[in-house]
Amino acid sequence: MEVDLERGILYNITKDTKVNYQPLPILMKTILEEGGLIPYVKKPGDLKLV
Asked: CA 48, 32, 8: angle at the middle one, nearest 5?
């Protein structure tokens, strides 16, 4: 499986199918990129709740 978080597409490579879904909000994507909620909150600087 492959997931395109930006476009909201889930690819099932073995069955050659795809499912569209609502893309993640920018804040959720940023938290995931930081490694989760705790690392995001502990990151130096202002806490940005987009």
From this structure: 105
Tens digit of pLDDT for each residue in 10-23? Answer: 999 999 999 999 99
CA 42 to chain centre: 19
φ/ψ of residue 47, rounded to 5: -75, 115
CA angle 49–11–13, rounded 5-degree value? 145
**Which pTM value belongs to this model?**
0.59
The rounded distance, in Å, linking the Cα atoms of 15 and 4 is: 17
Q: Which residue has the tokens 């987009």?
A: 50
Determine the pLDDT at residue 1.
Answer: 94
User: Tokens standing for 27?
Assistant: 């804040």
